[in-house]
UniProtKB/TrEMBL annotation:
The lineage of its organism: Bacteria, Pseudomonadati, Pseudomonadota, Betaproteobacteria, Neisseriales. InterPro entries: Glyco_hydro/deAcase_b/a-brl, NODB_dom. Residues 2-264 form the NodB homology domain. This is 4-deoxy-4-formamido-L-arabinose-phosphoundecaprenol deformylase. It comes from the Bacteria.
Amino acid sequence: MKKLALKIDVDTWRGTRDGVPRLMHMLQQHHAKATFLFSLGPDHTGRAIKRVFRPGFLSKVSRTSVVEHYGIRTLLYGTVLPGPDIGKREAELMREVRAQGFEVGIHTWDHIKWQDYVAGKDAAWTRAEMRKAAERFERIFGEPARTHGAAGWQINDAALAYERELGMLYASDGRGSHPFQPVDAAGQPLGVPQLPTTLPTLDELIGLDGLTADNVHKHILELTEDEPATGHVYTLHAELEGLRLGYTFEHLLVGWKAQGYQLCSCIELFSSLDAASLPNGRVVMGEIPGRSGTLALQA
């Protein structure tokens, strides 16, 4: 059966507390599996205000109703209000996600800090941030994480290399068209195999070309009519599909099942591949439609 892996990025405390339980319930109703990637440290969402100076950021915010989806309180964390420690507050809920049969992994320690700075940081900074997340994950779950999905699709070569040192099996850190083995500038293997996100996200599409929350699922379903040999990876967010855009996601679940997809976790998709024969590829920073700034792309 053709596979479509559901990768759930959990960015905030609100997304963890409110969005994750709703997504679990919806997925169980549709007999779908998924991979939940958790932010494990402080929620400093309010510090994203500095992105106002990035080209394209204000237009994206106006299209996707950030206040509506994230809530005013969340947008004050790390500035006017102290950032709640997500891993400490929601450890029990995170363990329940695993107990319900879903794959769990690392998204980040501090989402805003990682997304805004990692692309330009050195190995020492990068490893320190990843180590904090890895140690918190192990304290919560009693075992090391086996996968990582970079916050905001922001990554550098040091992070890719450190994923192997941490004992991960695979990662999903960027955008692309098919699974591959990352290599460095000299063409040598770097880190673990990558399962890039192959489909656009709701916040990249809504507000463009007449797409709304009520019809955007039709556009995505058109993109999945023809299935690549190695399957699809769709990234959703606990703050969007887990809250106000839940009905849009439900349309997608129904549509993908009608198209004959097995809705699976990323580890299920990875396990169906021959990791040793994956093509090599570089991870580069570039732009994609609907998203401000640069992000990790499969070259």
